[in-house]
Amino acid sequence: MSEMNTPVTAKTPSPEEVALIKKFLNDTTLFLGPDPEIMQNHDLMPRTEMEDECMRKVGDAHTIAKIRDRIQAGCDEGYEMVEQMGAAPGAKWGDVITGVYSASGDLAIASAGGVLIFSALVHHPIKFIIKNWVNEPTVGVREGDGFIHNDSRYGNVHNTDQSMILPIFHKGKLVCWVASTVHEGENGAIEPGGMPSMAESPCDEGLKMCPFKVVENYQIKRDILTFLQNSVREPKLQYEDMKVKLFACLRIKQRIEETLNTDGPEALISTLRTTMENVRAEVKRRVSQWPDMTVRTYIIQDSTLRENCVVKINCKLTKTGDRLIFDFRGSSPEFTNRPTNTIVAGLKGMLAQVFLCYVWPDLPRGQAAFAPIEVITDPHSIVNCSYDAPNSQSLMSIFTGFTAGQHAVAKFLYSCPEKYTKVHAPTFNMINTFIWGGVSQHGETLGNLCADLNGMGAGARSDLDGEHGLAPIFATMADIGEQELNEEDVPFLQLVSKKMTRDAIAPGKYRGGQGYTMIAATKDSEQWGFMTTCQGAKIPPIQGLFGGYACGCYPLSKVKGIDVYDILLNEPHKFKHSIEEIMNEQPFEDATYTTHHMGMGFEISKRGELFMISQGAGAGYGDLLERDPAGVIRDIEEGLISPGVAERLYKVKFDPATLAVNQDATAAARDAERKDRIARGVPYAEFIKTWNKPTPPSHLQYFGCWGDDVAKLYMGSPDKFRDANTPRPNYMVHPKDVRIAELEARLHALGAMGGEKQ
Amino acid sequence: MKVLMTEYLRIDLDTEQWECRVCDHTIGTAAKGYKEGMLVYNRDPREIHPPILDPEKYRFTFSPDPEWVRILEYYCPHCGTMVETEYAIPGHPPLHDMEPDLPALRAQWAKREEVKEPVVGPAVVPDQGHNH
After folding, report:
1. Each residue's pLDDT tens digit, A184-204
2. A697: nearest CB among B54, B63, B90
3. Which residues 46-75 in chain B show a CB within 8 A of chain A?
4. B68 closest CB neighbour out of A538, A546, A675
5. pLDDT tens digits, residue range A224-254?
6. Given phi > 0 = left and psi -120 to 50 = alpha, else beta, which region is A79?
7. Is A697 an interface residue toward B (CB < 8 Å)?
8. Helices (H) and strands (E) in chain B — how many of each?
9. Per-residue confidence at A7, pLDDT binned at 50, 70, 90?
10. Per the domain annotation, does B115 fall within a domain?
11. Is A343 buried (19+), middle (13-18) or exposed (0-12) by CB count in 10 A?
12. Helices (H) and strands (E) in chain A, counts
């Protein structure tokens, strides 16, 4: 054994030595990567001496309310500016947040509309700037500076979101920050649109902007701007929206300065801090009203967007006193070469949405609403991925994580007499839309997506059906936008849009809101294509509530070998207005009709080929046999469900011609079904004897814990797993290699390889 | 004192039993999961989410794949009400989904009036705007 390997007793360094080591490490840092101290913490920063002093001087509730309203109005004004002037489709439908941050970097007051997921995770880059650039002589933070950021490993959801961040000074002293964040779309990744599902490493994900200075003296630096424009497919978008975000920040700055002039900096600082501390305290009080309980649920992702497999999002939610703890241990290990991983801050951001949008929508928007809630995850898991893991499709994990949270929270809320919303079954959680890119009919290079991602069906409530195609779970106050306006800029049409997809249902006493069909076809460009980035073609991505069912599944359908525009011109009677009719009747001769999961990598579309998808339904609530028969008939009349399916599931008897309900026959059919349930149901103890299996099924690639044993994470088969606390690489084979191997095996079996040398 | 826990379940804090709110059937001890007192049915998901596309022609049909996921339906053994559903990977042990802390629940409700009808929560009321 060499001397180097001989273990020695470690000497505990003295405080002086610790300080020296720390100074040495700080002075010689090779690379300022994402800082775990910042990135793992979502709570408020400690109250500073300055904040303490300001709160002592200005504590009058009326003054604070007045200033808070004024700052809130300023944030909303900035939000409106971005929404109205922004070039990104995301800006137009409200995928935006503007806000005012404390001097320590906490988001104190955010715009009321838009994407509130941002409220819990846009503070990290500001804290990075404070920690690293304020005292860095080659950078510094001065009046007139502005910083840009998009790398999600330093904060935010994914790299398609870009922030502009400005420090606000008063008489030379930093008093707060303002920032504006937009889902910009294009960012120079290997696929257009900013959310590549083909990314196999962070290097495939386009621009990687850790927070850096891009504005001086309130002017965008042209050399850096040119570099950024040169790195993306949409240079016009990059420039325009940097200007828009900068000017929105300047407007909020103007409103802050007006407050500083009338009320002074102490009042402003006290307002920001008091608002956050009050919200945090109120959240703890509200949590204390819930029952002390543990609720368990899991949500399944059925693909990595490249291949179908079973990926578990495991959630145990425990409430004790005024503590609420989300425990996501047991969720799938991170994928080393698939982009569906998320940094843990993204997960926390979506969980904050559960509360800000669905549980306590009355609370002021900001970081404080989620600050006291705790989150536990395994290291290097799909919900807390490492620096080296791609995360451009983090939406898959934060959305399913959201649903786990929404499902668990509902079971706490039911018994709590103090409610701010109705108990709510899970809303649909996938962005069933087309991401698009290429060269437009105007010769411009574009890459972005249809706003229909905002058309998620809402979950049913305890006394109401869910709303159809309502709003995205990440922004309940966002819009779907006008497709006709979008079509002026892009070379494709949605031939069918906003027509509800019949029988794609989530039944219950109150049914989930349904989704609508989209049929798109390229028209005026030979260089144009689509991608889709959703899960849920084999396993529903949500759960039902209190006996309600989840939604079904949603595939992608394609019709190729046709030009639908020629058909519409010459044989218009052949065109049908539903996926069901087109795919089942196959009305176009010589066309190919295929179905796929919803993880279509970017694919060039020829003129007139059909790409067809449907938005999803929110979950149902309660036993479907309790559904008012009139509601079932209304669903038939509105084309949501076919008469045969309605009768079979809901046990409603009606006249097929008039749809008049036979109440007595319905009651009898429902009684008979309840008796049938008792006859066919198996006592739990008997059932689990045959149902429960010790390991995941061998016919599925399964990732995550099995049952309650969260210490063991399966990695694709029953005999491949890792210890939850000991990360291991988790590579997936290229789907084409898998397919080639399957086909070669068949050729071998047939003896048809022809003696090919290996 | 009884606490309404879900649309169909309540806990009797005195007897520490789960009860069915539809038929008053005593399901079992609240120290364990209510599912242990239920009947369970392993449902083919295609029966609830019917194929919209012809399964003879296509791999993906809008129906869940029955080899990938099943629906566990939990029925009250007395009245047949479907108390809960669980979309489960084949063979995955059913979840102990609600595990209340009974002493804490009793202490919390000792300070409250019994609630016999569920509190629905506020409705979303459309803003009427500014008018005179």
Report:
1. 888 999 988 888 999 999 999
2. B90
3. 48-50, 52-54, 57-65, 67-69, 71, 73-75
4. A538
5. 999 999 999 999 999 999 999 999 999 999 9
6. alpha
7. yes
8. 1, 8
9. low
10. no
11. buried
12. 19, 24
Is a pLDDT exceeding 60 seen at residue A409?
yes
* Token pair 């084949």: residue: B90
- Mean pLDDT for A336-345 is 97
Q: Is the pLDDT of residue A122 over 80?
A: yes
Q: Select the residue from A309, A324, A684, A695 to test the B interface by mutation, using most B Cβ atoms within 10 A.
A: A684
Assess if residue B125 is contained within a domain.
no
Rounded to the nearest 5°, which phi and psi values hold at A333? -60, 155
The domain of B16 spans 2-109
Q: Does B92 touch chain A (CB under 8 A)?
A: yes
A56-60, A120-124, A384-388, B108-112: the lowest-pLDDT one: A120-124
With an 8 Å Cβ cutoff, is B84 touching chain A? yes
* Nearest chain A residue (CA) to B86: A543
Which pLDDT belongs to residue A25?
Answer: 84
A366 within 8 A of A110, measured Cβ to Cβ: yes
Other beta carbons less than 10 A from residue A99's beta carbon: 28
Nearest CB to A310; choose among B5, B89, B93: B89
Q: How many CB pairs under 8 A join A and B?
A: 250
This complex has an ipTM of: 0.97
- CB–CB contact B57 A584 (8 Å): yes
Q: What is the pLDDT of residues A518-548, one digit of tens each?
A: 999 999 999 999 999 999 999 999 999 999 9
Paired tokens of B55: 């399964």
Question: Where does chain B show beta strands of DSSP type E?
Answer: 2-4, 9-12, 17-20, 26-29, 39-43, 70-75, 82-88, 98-100
Please check whether residue A111 is in contact with residue A117, taking contact to mean a CB–CB distance below 8 angstroms. no
CB A315 within 8 A of CB A411: no
Cβ-contact A636, A534 below 8 angstroms: no
**pLDDT, averaged across chain A:** 94
Residue A45: what pLDDT?
A: 97
Domain count, chain B: 1
Find the angle CA(A40)-CA(A155)-CA(A21) to the nearest 5 degrees. Answer: 55
